[in-house]
Specification:
With about 45 residues, this protein is an alpha+beta fold. The protein has one domain. Helix content is about 20%, strand content about 30%. It has a three-stranded antiparallel β-sheet with strand order 1-2-3, with helices on one face. It is globular and about 30 Å long.
């Protein structure tokens, strides 16, 4: 379930996902909510 959600987000980041930018000392992290789980990650843009 978690792997499939991460792969789906990677393929289409503009899709319908529960993404939130964290605040405070973790403001450089994003949170992806997957059911009862939370996946934290950094979002990098390849230039």
């Amino acid at each position: 379930m978690i792997i499939k959600a991460i792969e789906a987000y990677a393929e289409n980041p503009s899709g319908n996902f529960d993404i939130k930018t964290l605040k405070g000392k973790f403001e450089d992290l994003e949170r992806l909510r997957i059911g009862n789980y939370r996946e934290l990650f950094r979002y990098y843009v390849n230039l």
